[in-house]
What we know:
By secondary structure, the chain is an alpha/beta fold. It contains 15 helices and 13 strands.
Amino acid sequence: MIKNIILVYPSFERGGVKKNFLSYLKILSKKKININIITDKKINKKKFKKNIKVFTTKKYKFSFIYKYLCSFISAYKILQLRKSIKINDLRVISFQSSFFTSIICRLIGFKLIVRVSEDPIGATKYSDNIILAILIFFTKIVTYNLSYKIFVNSRKMNENLKKLVINKKKIILQYNMNLKSIRKYKINNKKNIFLNIGRFCKQKNQILILKAFKLFIKKNKNFLLYLCGDGPDTTRLKVICKDYNIEKKVKFLGWKNNTKDILIKSKYFIFPSLYEGLPNALIDAVNFDLVCVCNNVSGVNDICGKNYVPLKKNNAESIFQGMQKSVSNYNYYSKKNLIHKKRLNKFLFKNLENKLLKNIK
């Protein structure tokens, strides 16, 4: 049994990574394991057992290199912990920006587990700054090959990582622990709402959603589009809505910690992301019986199989056609959610707890 864990989360941001970090912490804190957390934000330890120490890194104002500074300092914190922890009883789990951590861990003999949350090939391909993206891509290759194990959260990511890693046996499929329970199938009282949940940025592709919705709303007047989240594209998305004269049909809901209410009343989930790891929002959409219109990115087949409306191309016309198809065949695709739900067992918290403990050994 491992006696010591170091959890490295340099930049404590809200979203899917944070959710999975807290899931890991919840499981590990119930065991007789000493947990050391390295991050840039104080964590409320009262929710967990007393076997937790938090080492916070100093915050910097340099936004462009903030993550890299936090990552570098986190690696230095690991170096300081070397004196107090026995190597044989330790695992280091890194959730983010693992390059410096991987170098230090290899030098001092700590066994590092890197959790990969998004497809590195897709992230590079669709980056705004291709030169920086290529540089980061090569640091990821170094990180993966220096690590002890690599946790991926979808089958497509598993295949993509095999192209980058020499020792392919170190890659382990560890699904996200998203669900406490699977809801009973229920579509009563749902409204004509297309819902998208996620950070407003290029990756999530909300600009194309608006272009497609402009086409869609001409033929389907009684529909609404809900965009839940925030991010760098927020202002631009709102300007586009005004330019398209659809602002009365589009609601910006902001960031929500609990999306249950909007999932209950929405009929459709629109998901044209350019790349993913395992999309938590899509798992919730299936669990709440929304008809899903998706790009076939990493994680979609793990969640939906083939039971969704696929987008053939990355353009507004394809998304528009997918929306039309989902509405015309709502009853057919809605009933397929019964098949969807059988695939959700793999994301239940209770089914993944023991697997996580086994995989960190």
